[in-house]
Design brief:
This protein is an alpha/beta fold. It has a single domain, classed as TIM Barrel, CATH 3.20.20. It is built from twelve helices and ten strands. A six-stranded parallel sheet has the order 5-6-7-8-9-10. Strand 2 and strand 3 form a beta hairpin. Helix 4 crosses helix 5 and helix 5 crosses helix 6. It is globular. The two termini are about 15 Å apart. About 45% of the residues are buried.
Length: about 350
């Protein structure tokens, strides 16, 4: 069975020969990379390019992206330290901001060829659709203001927050139109999302989500589905159990990353296994970095048994594999996944 056949069966809630898998994480030595490339079923996430003529700007040790968000290297990560709308309060001020052009065709140059290259290797393709290094309109909005200001303004300045979300929705729709006009007929998965949860609960109230954010996400996903037959993949870390039914209602097909320290995977499968595809689920907080190969194999087997019955599971790490993860644990992860047969 090819990778494409394997994943497409699982995406239709049928059982393939074995559970499909993917990789996300640190760069690996060539011998590991070649081995992984031979067994993963999903191509690396496909990203759009910057607009024509744009060049990364650096001031000191801070790197600025197209939206003016500044990031600084902290360890192995680029962390946000500059938020361009941190002092903005009035909706009308958003019109004066120098926004990036989401419709620039330079963004999608070469994208069709890249998707076809992976399809010709029998891999499934997934495209990212959000600017600013975010996954969706909520995240991109608070990246612009800073999280504290955004969460406070939900209550102190709601008109500004709604205007900002509307601005982000418009940018996302134009970017998605640009991307899908190029690859909508050949891409398999369209990625969106928003981190809505912490490990213990939600970042925002269910009421605010349903009144304010959900209607805008619904517009976004409906627009995606008008332009492509691809599955809609939604990313949110954390415990988002109170909102999963809402996500299904607005058209989410795939839920990522199924953070096992925050979600009960057995309960998830029982409640939503016939309506959602689960992507991820292998513990990257404790087992992968700090366990041994036996612990890793035990974790793989547990998630497969709890989430895999009837298909609908793409099994892999629940976050980017970090630098402190032993290579023998990465090897154990994928060796055991290859043994998860139906």
């Amino acid at each position: 069975m090819t990778s494409r056949e394997r994943v497409l069966l699982s995406l239709s809630h049928n059982e393939p020969d074995r559970v499909p898998t993917f990789y996300r994480g640190i760069s690996l030595p060539e011998q590991y990379k070649d081995w992984l490339d031979s067994i993963i079923d999903i191509a690396p996430y496909i990203y759009y390019k910057p607009s024509k003529g744009w060049e990364s700007k650096r001031i000191g040790d801070i790197i600025f992206d197209e939206l003016g968000i500044g990031r600084k290297q902290v360890g192995s990560h680029l962390e946000m330290v500059v938020h361009p709308l941190a002092n903005t309060r009035e909706p009308i001020e958003l019109d004066d901001f120098s926004w990036t052009d989401p419709s620039d065709r330079a963004r999608v140059e070469g994208m069709r060829e890249l998707v076809m290259e992976w399809r010709n290797k029998d891999k499934i393709t997934a495209v990212m659709t959000s600017p600013g290094g975010s996954t969706g309109i909520f995240e991109c909005s608070w990246y612009m203001t800073g999280m504290e200001k955004f969460l406070a303004d939900i209550y102190e300045n709601p008109k500004f927050i709604e205007a900002l979300l509307d601005k982000m929705l418009g940018i996302h729709i134009k970017l998605i139109e640009n991307i899908l006009s190029e690859i909508g007929d050949i891409v398999d998965i369209v990625c969106t999302g928003d981190d809505l949860g912490t490990q213990n609960g939600l970042l925002i109230s269910p009421k605010w989500y349903r009144d304010i954010l959900k209607p805008r996400q619904k517009i976004l996903i409906e627009h995606i589905k008008k332009l492509t037959k691809a599955k809609v993949y939604y990313h949110s870390c954390g415990n988002i159990m109170p909102l999963i039914e809402d996500l299904i209602e607005i058209g989410v097909d795939i839920l990522d990353p199924i953070q096992p320290k925050a979600l009960d995977t057995k309960r998830l499968k029982g409640l939503y296994g016939d309506r959602l595809i689960f992507w991820g689920s292998i513990d990257e907080q404790e087992v992968l970095p700090f366990g041994n190969p036996k612990d890793v194999k035990r974790e793989v087997r547990r998630r497969f048994e709890e989430l895999g019955k009837g298909g609908g599971l793409i099994l892999g790490p629940a976050h980017w594999i970090q630098l402190d993860t032993p290579l023998e644990n990465i090897t154990a992860l994928y060796e055991e996944i290859l043994l998860c047969l139906y």
